[in-house]
UniProtKB/TrEMBL annotation:
InterPro entries: DUF3243 (IPR021637), Uncharacterised_YmfJ (IPR024702), YmfJ/YflH_sf (IPR038292). Pfam families: DUF3243. This is DUF3243 domain-containing protein.
Length: 82
């Protein structure tokens, strides 16, 4: 089973990567930029595997670049919460 198949596993995976980035000294702006780049990659290259990912993909597709950055920032906050 891929980490993308289950929403909670996906959030846990992102949270682990976020913790790793922080422990390696990445600041919040760099983390935010990376989250945006990940979102862009996923929207272009990866088929959503569950309903939550489908909603995010749909939102990403209709969002402006500024809104996409906001979505990425919200995802960072979501995984920080655990």
């Amino acid at each position: 089973m891929s980490v993308l198949d289950n929403w909670q596993q996906w959030k846990d995976f992102l949270g682990d990567r976020l913790d790793q980035a922080k422990s390696e000294g990445m600041n919040q702006q760099v983390i935010s930029d990376v989250a945006y780049q990940v979102g862009e990659y996923l929207s272009e290259q990866v088929e959503p595997k569950n309903d939550q990912e489908k909603v995010l993909a749909d939102l990403w597709q209709v969002a402006s670049e500024e809104e996409q950055h906001a979505i990425a920032n919200v995802m960072v906050k979501l995984v920080q919460r655990g």
